[in-house]
Amino acid sequence: MSLIRWPDESDLFGQMERRLEQMNRDMGSLWSSIRPFSSISHVGVFPPMNIYDDGEGYVARAELPGVDPKDIDITVTGDTLTIRGKREIKQINGQNSYHRRERKSGEFKRAFSLPNRVDSNKVSAISKNGILEIYLPRAEESKQRKIEIKTK
Predict the structure, then answer these.
(1) How many domains does one find in the chain?
(2) What is the pTM (predicted TM-score) of this model?
(3) Pair 55, 73 in one domain
């Protein structure tokens, strides 16, 4: 029977840390090659969004700094919200080079399934200071109703 020799703890944790760093580098380059805006957030999505239920419907907030509202297209079909657009960043003089370039430009698309159907005729949106807020009221057939119990 042979004895398995384990490395000392400091070496073991160092190896784990190096492997995690390598995986992060590998995954970062993978996301960069298959998804636009991969350096904007941790999971490679743009724009970052929050969606919450306010009791009467849903409110979606998207961070869209530098995006002209005219370049955004919002559609609602049944229970699906789709946001499409493009962000263009003005190019600098061709003689200059970047020291760091993290802001991406190009087209984006996000689609979300909501828990209930919304009334697409009453959807509204407003953009202020780079935040797009979309109000999505529930469709009447999706609203909760209280049922009265009759007694005999």
Answers:
(1) 2
(2) 0.62
(3) yes
